[in-house]
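Researcher: Structure for this, please.
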Amino acid sequence: MVRTVPTCTGGVQSERLGTTLIHEHLFVVHQELDLNLPHPEWDEQDAVERAVTGLERLHALGVRTVVDLTVPGLGRDVARVRRVAERAPVEIVVATGYYTADVLPHAIRLHGPGRMVDGPDPLERLFIGDIERGIAGTGIRAGMLKVVTDVEGFTPDVRRVWEAAAAAHLRTGVPITTHSHASSGGGREQQRMLRELGVPLDRVVIGHSGDSTDLDSLRELADAGSYLGFDRFGMAHVASDDDRVRMLLALLELGYGDRIVLSHDAAFFSRVTPPSWRAAHAPDWHMEHLFTGILPRLRDAGVDEATIEQLLVENPRRVLAGA
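Model: Predicted structure, token format:
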């Protein structure tokens, strides 16, 4: 079944998404800090130009779609992303959700049903509005929901974000992707919460699964129906690519090729890990690394082209558009 996936420049039939990087960022910023303590490496026009040039290079490598998972909490500015999308040869899918591993801002946490400022849940209004009407007046609709847990686990505010995301998914069918803390087994808790909230696990990507070296845990997540995000290639300060490739090959050998998606979780600019820091500490952490550094290793290990197409074309298409 062909379905239309929303992008920054209009709907695209799922069969035309092509090679897709399903977990990336264009710009990770912090508007309040940018106003009051500007970062010396941030120049908006220069960042836009670097993103356009970077996406042109990705297109030359065969990429046709990039999913930008920059949501509120990470400095989302879809109008800025649209400036890139209108010039780049690659489709850009944007996301809704809220990025926090612990607490929400007071302007959200004190508002909602039964709270100090009673009324509708602002998170549900945000998520559903972003999906159904478009983001911040741009008309660009979100194509994924992004939620987070880390070492802090399901704090009350984090659970509230997940409840709102589940409600938005159940109303709209938009898939959910997560930030998980692999070394503490966060994916299991995420699946447990999503089951409790009624979300079908085959509409979920457990992000950062590729940071784990626990094969049994990864099989458990995939057997429950979710996709495994091997989505941090090049992020050397978190885990090694050697381990990521080793675990990926083991899962492929065991027949889990239809449950895995690949990406980098990279950015053209991030205030959290600015360009000078990345150049010194994670020089391979960029959106071309999969094609120049990882796929050759997979091919050398015997992974065939049909499997690579499944990982980069078919599986992302099924995530974004449904089976």
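Researcher: Any notable elements?
Model: The mean pLDDT is 97. The chain has twelve helices and eleven strands.
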